[in-house]
Structures are given as C-alpha cells and as structure tokens.
Design a protein that fits this description.
The complex is a heterodimer of chains A (275) and B (348).
Chain A (H helix, E strand, L loop, with lengths): L9 H27 L4 H8 L2 H34 L5 H13 L2 H12 L4 H9 L8 H26 L2 H9 L4 H30 L2 H7 L9 H10 L3 H32 L4
Chain B lengths: L2 E10 L2 E11 L4 E5 L6 H9 L6 E6 L2 E2 L10 E4 L11 H10 L9 H14 L15 H13 L5 E5 L7 H18 L2 E6 L2 H7 L2 E6 L2 E6 L1 H6 L4 H6 L4 E4 L5 H7 L10 E4 L4 E5 L8 E8 L3 E8 L10 E6 H7 L6 E6 L3 E3 L1
Parallel strand pairs in B: 3-8, 3-9, 6-7, 7-8
Antiparallel strand pairs in B: 1-2, 1-4, 4-5, 9-10, 11-12, 12-18, 13-17, 14-15, 14-17, 15-16
Helix pairs in contact in B: 2-3, 2-4, 3-4
The chains are: A mainly alpha (275), B alpha+beta (348).
Chain lengths: 275, 348
Amino acid sequence: MSRSSVMPGFRPTIGFTLLYLGLVVLIPLSTLVFKSFALSWDDYLHIITSKRVLSSFRVSFSTALAAASIASLFGFITAWVLVRYSFFGKNIFHALIDLPFALPTAVAGIVLATIFQPSGFLGKLLLETFGIQVAFKPMGIVVALIFISIPFVVRTVEPVLLEFETTMEEAGSSLGATRLQVFTKIIFPNIFPALLTGFALAFARGVGEYGSVIFIAGNIPYVSEIVPLLIVIKLEQYDIEGATAIALTMLVISFLLLLLINLLQLWVRKRSGQL
Amino acid sequence: MSILLTDISKNFGAFAALNHINLEVPEGELVALLGPSGCGKTTLLRIIAGLEHTDQGHILINGDDKTDQNVSQRGIGFVFQHYALFRHMTVFENVAFGLRVKPKRDRPSNEIITKKVHALLDLVQLDWLHNRYPDQLSGGQRQRIALARALAVEPSVLLLDEPFGALDASVRKDLRQWLRNLHHELNVTSIFVTHDQEEAMEVASQVVVLNHGKIEQQGTPSDIYDHPANAFVSRFIGQTNVFDLENHESDWLQSAGLLSQGQKGKIAHVRPHDIIIEKSINNANTLATLKDWQHLGALIRIELVKNGANKSSDASIFAELPNDQFKDLKLVRGDKVNLKIRHAHWFH
C-alpha cells in the first residue's frame, strides 16, 4: 500500500478521528462497563429487574418513542411550511425553531410545568374541557420531549426538502397524478430517509433528556419516573453499582434501537435507489 | 390532435413574457418553438401544458377549450429539460407511473401495464435497463426514458422543453434523428422548445420563431431560411452578412454585384454561401483581402476584409465555399480577391 491514494490524508484524519472518539466517547463509556464488572451477574439482574427500574424503562422509552413520532409529524409540516411558502416574519420563525437548542432545558421544563399544571393556563383548559391532565403524568413528559426534539426533525428534513426537484412534481401532475398522489408517491418517498434520521435524533435526544422532564413529570415512582432520574437518585444515595447497572442497560438498549433505525434507513435508501 | 392558441398573453410582474400570441399547430406536425433565451418560448410551452396559467386568451386542443383545466386533466405528455425522472423509482416504475395513478375504473390491470411498459421501453430501445434507477443512467438514456414515460399515458399532444439541451453534442445529434423518426412512427402532434436554430431546422416540420414574447415568423424550415420575414429572423437563422447601405460606399456594393438587381431596402442580408470568390489576377482594383479561414468539414469559412474602406465601419465579411473549390483557388492569407454577391434579402 505504498501507492498514494486518490484522496490524500487518510492516515492523519483517521488517526485524529480515532483519538478523539477514544478520548471523548469510548474511554468514558468503557469505564461504565468496567465499573459494572464490580457487580455479579445475579446482583445486576436483581437491580435491573426491580419493579421500579423496569417501569422507569417503560416510561422513558415509550414517552421518547411517542414524542419522536409526534415531533416527526410536526417537524415535517414545519419544515414544509418553511421551505415551500414565503410569508411575513419567516426569518423570525426560522430563529424560533432553533431556540430549544439554546435554551437551558430546565427553563423549558419549568415553563411547560407552569402552564400545563392543573391550575396553569393550558392545564386548566385541558382538564376542564377534556378531562385530560398533562403535567405530572407520562403525557407531560411527552410534551416536554416534543418541545426539545422538534428542531432536530425540522433541521434534518429542511435541506432535503429544499433540494427536492419540483419538476418531479410537475412531471407527476402532467402524467395525471392528483395532488395527493404526487405527495404520497413522489414527495414523501424522497423525504422519508431524512425524516427517519430526524426521528432517530429526536428519539435519542428524548431518551437521554433530563432537565426539562423532571419539572413537568412529577417524578412519581412507577408512573412518571424516567431512567436518567433514577440514575441520579441512586447516585445521591451513593449506590454507585446500582447507578452503573441501570446506565449500562440504558446504553445497550439505546445503542440497539439506534442501530435498528439506521438499518431501517439503509434498507429504505437501498429500496428507493438512493444507494 | 391540433392545437389552437388565441391571443395568449402572460406577464411576470412588469415583464411581458408573451404578447398576444396566436398560433395554430395542425395535427401530426412536429413544431419547433425557436428563439433566443428569454423570448418566452418555454413559458408558452408551459402554458400549453397547464403548468403555467395564461393571463388572457384560450388554449384549444382538438377544439376543446383547455384554458382552465389542470395539467393533470389535459392529457398532454411533457418532457423536461433535466428529465425530472422519479429518483426513487426504477426505470420500469417511472414509465408505469402514469398508468398506475389512473382512477381505479380506468386503470389497466397489472399484466397490461407490464406489457405496455416493456413495449414502450422497447420503443426507446432501453428495455434492458428496466431494473435500473435514474441515477445509474446516462443523460441520453434518461431523456429517452422520460419520453417513454410521457408516451405511456397516450397523450394527445407531446410537449418537449429543450429536450436535448443538457446533452453533449454527439448524443444530441443522434437523439435529434431518433426523435424525428419516432415522430414519423407515432405521428403525435408535438411541440419542442429550442434555442438552437440548427436543431429546429433539422428536426421540425414547422418552425415558429419567437422574440420578445411575439411570433416573428412561422413556416417550414426552408420557408424560414429562404424567405425570412424580417431582419431578426434572417440574423437568427443561420449566419448572415449585414450590409447597411448608409455605411457602405455604393460603388463598392455596385462592383460586388449587390445592386445589380436594384436596391430593395436599406439593409441587405447576404448568406455566406451567396458570395462567390474569385482570385484576382493583377491585384488591381480588388474588393477584398483574405484575412483568415476556418475548416468546417465540407465547407470552408472565409473571413474577408473590404479593401479601401474607412476602417471604422467595417466588420469582416464571411463567405463559405466547398472544400475542393477553396483548394482550387489556392489562396493564402493576405491575398487580394474579388467577390460577387449572388443573392440578398432586403429589409428596411
């Protein structure tokens, strides 16, 4: 391999990549794995199969999944509006989209808790008219996670929608397709891989989110307690083994789910000739 | 099917893209809309297709008023300059699209669709690519697939927007010939837009020359070449030498033979092949000097400079000679020559 390759600089760049990946990601994560070796297999199983831990996993993953799905829908529509129409105040709208990125998540959580609690402005309305309580329930977690994750969807879908050739739509119409057929058969299949990426990012963010959730969730064990909070609680009780066991499990499940989404995305791209 | 356009106008803001266009395209013709960029030719095509709305006037296809009909209802086939193939579908699915989106009662069965798509792919000689995706095809192949896709719905009219504009020269030449033959075979009324006069002359049975949103002339290619209606058409179709009588000495023009048939206007346009060149024997009283020449294949293009003129008014004069005639003249750069103008178009 002494021949110089077409794209020079492979060795230094891969070296840097591996070095930083090691320093920033792999060493901390492997520490987590090694820490958990202090536990025996039985102790480990005992910790993570306790009822409180299991229900927190259920709460965390189900709310993240629900929030990512809803955020994908909202985010897609938002991106569509931003790309396809011009209207007064569009630039301000653009800046607003990114706000959840910058805002301390705790602030978002406190604000959402204030308006959605049963005596709050929206919370009262929902409770009195529909009998729905949002705050201090899993639904409150979903609301907070949607708020946090929408920009991920908007910002992944937007560039793809921007690049989309509108002549493809015109071609579809000229062949007799209705507006709905043009959307379902031409536009959506081309945007879907990007939407899936946005979904994965939103989901990943939702699973790991802590700051905004703890204010609105009420943190009732077995009902609205999320995994990250449980880890913090264990740490505060100096139960380091318990915390690492939960953290490791969370890590593995998250990794497997993201891998699954990536494979799904690969399959979609292949099937639609994008690879 | 015939196409009839009456009084079509279109403005984009203050810019008048089309200005009271009246046009009739008889059934089975292959018509070229020819003009410089920005002349409104693509806008006109898109208005016929229904991709753009006209500000006024009517579009009739086979006598039916289609002015307010949506593009999906008009029964036209449209071929885009950059193909606009569906990237996420195979070649087969691209061609089948128009059949699959038909309302259930009109939709053919799967077997019929399969048969029809393969027949169309055979027609464009690309059936072997039916499993590929558009990104895996060359430009020429993509354009042929786009044509097959447009033909799948059996359009009453086929509209092509600069169909060869994005292709390289040799592919373009092949496809022109191919489109002409295909049109002979199918005989569907077709309109294509081009800015290339050679392409229009080669492919079309009728040429419509547009400029500044107006039709300058409509006719067969030979009509337009031999009898240009005005100075714009004459300049735009083929190369021409312009002699403005106010800027040229009349005795020079007299000797060149331009005025022998009488002066019929203020400006004379002379095609390069209507200038005959004779080598001067004694180098006295010659009309022009050979400045340079270029090899165009079968023809030689000769660049001449007028002798004894005030330099300021003088552009080069171009003449064209068959290769062997040029060789017989044994000319070199700087030779003095006489020339004879056989024919001119006069404009005011």
